[in-house]
Amino acid sequence: NSMLLWQRTAFHFQPQKNWMNDPNGPTYYRGWYHLFYQYNPASAVWGNITWGHAVSLDLVHWFYLPIAMVPDHWYDANGVWTGSATILPDGRLAMLYTGSTAELVQVQNLAFPADQDDPLLLTWVKSESNPVLVPPPGIAPKDFRDPTTAWYVPSESAWRIAIGSKNDSQRHAGIALVYRTSDFLSYELLPGVLHSVAGTGMWECVDFYPVSTESATGLDTSAATGPGVKHVLKASMDDDRNDYYAIGTYEAATNAWVPDDPEKDVGIGLRYDYGMFYASKTFYDPVKQRRVLWGWIGETDSERTDLRKGWASLQTIPRTVLFDQQTGSNLLQWPVDDVETLRSGSQEFSNISIPAGSVVPLDCSTSGGAAGRGVLGPFGLLVLADDDLSEQTAVYFYFVRSTDGSISTHFCHDELRHACHPALLAADIVKRVYGSLVPVLDGETLSVDHSVIESFAQGGRTCITSRVYPTSATYGGGRLFLFNNATGVDVTAKSLKIWQMGSAFIRPFSEHDSVS
Ligand code: FRU
Fold this sequence. Notes:
Elements: H1 2-5, E1 18-29, E2 32-40, E3 50-56, E4 62-69, E5 80-87, E6 93-100, E7 106-113, E8 124-126, E9 151-153, E10 158-167, E11 173-181, E12 187-189, E13 195-197, E14 203-212, E15 229-237, E16 242-251, E17 256-259, E18 270-271, E19 278-285, E20 290-297, H2 303-309, E21 311-312, E22 314-315, E23 319-323, E24 331-335, E25 343-354, E26 358-361, E27 379-385, E28 393-401, E29 407-414, H3 422-425, E30 433-438, E31 445-448, E32 452-457, E33 462-467, E34 479-484, E35 491-501, E36 506-508
Parallel strand pairs: 1-21, 4-36
Antiparallel strand pairs: 1-2, 2-3, 3-4, 5-6, 6-7, 7-8, 9-10, 10-11, 11-12, 11-13, 14-15, 15-16, 16-17, 16-18, 19-20, 20-22, 20-23, 23-24, 25-35, 26-34, 27-28, 27-34, 28-29, 29-30, 31-32, 32-33
The chain binds beta-D-fructofuranose (FRU).
């Protein structure tokens, strides 16, 4: 059993026990970062959904707080589902969330802090007007969920929110509906939709926010539109369980968002992450003027194993999101710099040559895919590897020369050998090779935390997250290797820096944790 305990993470957020899914209502409020999350207090599988709650002063160390909201009204009897926070101009906070009713109808509800002066936001009051929204005509009762953070439209002195849905009469289109409200109690459905993409099915957890095309700072959700600003529309595709985003232009007057590149539209183009990552949500952090992204990392083992270990799921390390000014066509994601406070004991390597077909151990003890051989790769790192490499996860690149002579670079995770223990091999862990194209090679970072690997290639143009279940490559046994499985080229790692990561505390809040 201790084997299963080992896999808890040291700096990725997870509840003390039981099931977690989507991040909810992330926000910064009076000195504290708040994270709420879909939480089953009773078991390590989905069900019984409440809002778990934790706070942090730095997005790295977390305090668990009591559950914020439970199903206690007819309008959320079947679950307090996903929602978002909006900070109002006077500093108060409005929380909108989806309730699944006793009859399994999806409705939107309003909640607010019982005491707006409590920075910990411990107690929540549900509005007497709930539900504030029910599925409109033409929308099925189970296709109406996950309200966004509201954005303010000054010309109307009103707010708008988006809600994901689908339209089966229009070629199984995923859609985002937009509502206008001035008081968060009564709402008007705007004509048309914010956007719709045929064939993509139900859009869960829609996120909609501005990005600056000119500066490396984040924008508040209500930032003015105009030159130098584009809008990101993201939806979580219930059909394929991935988070897709697209960059485009938003016009409040027509209630329309138009993607820059229709070929890369929502659900058919770019993904935040090419691994295990879903139901993400951003918020604007006024302290560091950045937009921060949270994503849910599910398990790839079986429900049976989750029940045995008593917990399931992690959240990603929060990521800063910026428009990529170099390409002009994608976002850049990077772990929040606060995480660097956990770094210690760094080691630097330069100009390590990795001859074709070799594996080079890096002398540092750290807490079909890559094994294939082509002329130009794969090459990269073996992480969470044991000494004899029976257990390993490869994070690697390979080049493909197409018939016209051009070369493309692929960036991948190979989970096929991440666990070698027979008991786990039998436990039907899903292992796969994740990959995506990246433009050029430079500036990769990798975060390895016992049972999760998050990789950021090209300064964050392409990201991949994997859940892994090492059995011998744990703690002192986890080693790092460079490998080059190319048959035709020697590779030189020009520079490589490795940090040991300290543990972040993630523990219950106590009297001594005074508010500064
Ligand atoms: C996404 C999701 C949301 C829903 C919540 C329920 O993972 O299905 O659409 O609100 O989870 O837990």
